[in-house]
Design brief:
This protein is α+β, with helices and mostly antiparallel strands. The chain has 17 helices and 25 strands. Helix 16 runs antiparallel to helix 17.
Length: about 525
């Protein structure tokens, strides 16, 4: 028999998830421990920056590195987009930061069929869009079909497209029919924002973003500011803040300066060295989010003649000094990796994770072998986003590392929007540095969804029938029914192909004034301000 999930009152799980307020001075070892030891801490425990009772009113002033791009609004590809999604939209279910145990949100309960091909969700009947229109099952159908549309280039497009039937007879319930079982169906339901079909054309143009979330979109001045105002009719109760003002400030040092001069309350873009410095100052809190891990990596275009030989790609993997990156760039707040999985993932394997430990001799041997077989390795461009200081610092370390084994690279900083466009379109000429997510979800999501990994079409243009086969196998299972041996096979396929070269797991950080309290974070890395308040 299938097992129903009962509804229970709750507040958004990631909004009450544990928030680590880390004083970074003298605590680099502790940060490493956080990555490995606290990922399983309770999602309902929360360390408050608290000064006592929640206070009403005030506008939170946020500094972000990148602007929103309407055509990429569902891609989590900029910090401003993350603020917008986390503030304006709700999802059907919520994952806590520390688990993949779905909790009710707009869906109050659900029942999966025995064969894993149908899921029935009961929906809240007291939710309205910011326009005042009631939320119904038709909005769930529209949102899923929007994500299934390749025009939006969302990273779970394949999973959304595998939903082939929608029974919306009941306005407050929906039955979804799948082409096959979906091991990551709850990943989709957590990531999917419920979209207003009446204003979708305005959304495409960046004129309106209408959801059911705690804040309403007010205005957008491209390249400058995005403003949100409180949703007084929010179904969970109105937020404490009157509104949120996001200033687009592409210079990280300017963000730090404005935080220090109290022109901003919260900054999302700074180097880890700056966060370390701010953490030593009693005027600021540095917040670090376990459960919302990201992975920084070097990507390779395998159709580039120099990179088409797997030995060259493996040489790059061996030559990357991951520990130096973690120590110098992330100030100890990370873990070197060869595979993307955090240690609590069912796909994690400690031995396999050390496959490409730093080994210059092995790297040079592989380069020499490839050259002896006629592979020419000219100077290769290494592309990365110019706005974020982290990528530039990593690029310089990688450039020096690769030069030691006979691979010359030319640094190619570009604007974030251009880099993301190349990622989605698989247009990088050679090498690039970026971060990815999704390894902290159901492992199949990474293999069939993420731009760098999608077995059917990825940013590296890597095609391999064995990789495609194992990615499909772990995807087309019921949730929690995947054999861990299959995950091991998936990991070996990634190592064999070496088309994406992991460097480190990192945890997102932000910094705020001590007057800011109870910031939240989603597993997707979206700041959540429903519980946030400002002390006077």
């Amino acid at each position: 028999m299938s097992t129903p999930v009962s509804a229970h009152p709750h507040r958004r799980a990631h909004q009450r998830s544990r928030r680590h307020l880390i004083r970074l001075a003298g605590a680099l070892v502790a940060l490493l421990t956080l990555v490995t030891a606290t990922a399983c801490s309770s999602a309902v425990d929360e360390l408050k920056s608290g000064s006592g009772e929640r206070q009403e009113g005030g506008t939170l002033r946020v500094g972000a590195l990148q602007d929103i791009v309407p055509a990429r609004i569902f891609t989590n590809s900029s910090d401003s987009i993350n603020v917008l999604i986390g503030s304006v939209y709700d999802s059907l279910i919520d994952y806590p930061l520390d688990s993949l145990d779905p909790k009710p949100s707009l869906a109050t309960s659900w029942q999966l069929s025995d064969d894993g091909k149908q899921l029935t969700l009961q929906l809240r009947d007291d939710v309205k869009f910011h326009s005042g229109r009631p939320f119904t099952s038709k909005d769930v159908e529209f949102s899923i079909k929007t994500w299934a549309d390749p025009a939006w280039t969302v990273q779970l497009q394949r999973t959304a497209a595998a939903i082939t039937g929608f029974d919306t007879t009941d306005e407050h319930a929906i039955t979804l029919t799948f082409a096959h079982p979906l091991s990551n169906i709850f990943d989709l339901l957590d990531m999917l924002p419920i979209i207003d079909q009446d204003t979708i054309d305005q959304l495409r143009e960046g004129k309106a973003f209408v959801g059911t979330g705690p804040f309403e979109f007010k205005s957008w001045s491209p390249g400058a500011k995005i403003q949100f105002t409180r949703n007084d009719d929010y179904w969970r109760g109105k937020p404490a803040l009157d509104g949120i003002d996001v200033s687009v400030i592409p210079d990280p040092q300017a963000q730090v300066a404005q935080l220090r001069s109290h022109q901003l309350d919260l900054i999302l873009g700074a180097s880890y060295r700056d966060f370390e410095s701010l953490g030593k100052d009693d005027q600021f809190n540095v917040n670090q989010w376990d459960g919302a891990e990201g992975q920084v990596y070097v990507g390779t275009n395998v159709t580039n003649p120099a990179l088409s030989d797997v030995r060259v790609r493996q040489a790059i993997a061996y030559a990357l000094d991951r520990k130096r990156v973690v120590d110098e760039v992330f100030r100890g707040a990370g873990v070197p990796i060869s595979l993307p999985w955090p240690d609590y993932s069912p796909a994690y394997d400690a031995t396999a994770n050390g496959t490409y430990d730093y080994d210059l001799d092995q790297a040079k041997k592989l380069v020499d072998e490839a050259k002896a077989d006629g592979v020419k390795i000219p100077k290769l461009p290494l592309t990365y986003p110019s706005e974020n200081p982290i990528y530039g610092a990593i690029a310089q370390i990688a450039q020096a590392d690769l030069a030691k084994v006979g691979i010359e690279v030319e640094l190619d900083p570009q604007e974030q929007a251009q880099v993301i466009q190349q990622l989605i379109g698989a247009k990088f000429p050679a090498l690039w540095i970026l971060s990815h997510g999704y390894a902290n979800w159901t492992p199949s999501t990474l293999a069939v969804s993420a731009y760098p990994f999608n077995a059917e079409h990825n940013a590296s243009l890597y095609v391999d029938k064995d990789y495609q086969a194992i990615a499909d196998k772990v995807w087309k299972e019921k949730p929690d029914a995947v054999d861990t041996a299959d995950y091991a096979t998936l990991s070996q396929a990634l190592l064999k192909g070496s088309f994406l070269l992991e460097i480190a797991i990192t945890l997102p950080q932000d910094a705020s004034s001590t007057q800011v309290h109870d910031i939240g974070q989603t597993k997707r890395g979206e700041p959540v301000f429903y519980d946030t308040y400002l002390s006077k």
